[in-house]
Amino acid sequence: MSMIPFVASLVMVSAAGMALAAIAITVRAQLPALRQLIADSRALATDREFLVQITATATPAAPRVAEGAAMRPRRPAVRLVKAPVAAPASTGQRLRAAA
């Protein structure tokens, strides 16, 4: 009966060894992709620093205005309202057309 614990220990050790071998094979197969990922991360960091440098030193653009528009205030639009035509004052007599 003393052989069962020994065989179980060997099975566990061999399973752990195979798991470590699978991990090592996977890491070695993915090394090129991992290197590319690190290079892309560095390139993005460099681009980010460049963009921060550009935006930090840029001067704000002057607003575009029409000639002379900056000197006079804008006036609201005025609507023309025509006064209603007044009816002739009625004297109680009918008006006749001139003959």
Question: Would you mind describing this structure in some detail?
Answer:
It is a single chain. This protein is an all-alpha fold. The chain has a domain at 28-59. It is 56% helix and 0% strand. The protein contains one helix and no strands. The longest helix is centred in the first third of the chain and has 55 residues, at 3-57. The model has no long low-confidence stretch (mean pLDDT 80).
List low-pLDDT spans: none
The level of helicity is: 55-70%
Tally of individual helices: 1
Main pleated-sheet profile? none
Mean pLDDT across residues: 80
Roughly what fraction of the amino acids lie in strands? Answer: under 5%
Order of helices and strands: H
Decide which structural class fits the backbone: mainly alpha
The total beta strand count reads: 0
Distance between the termini: 147 Å
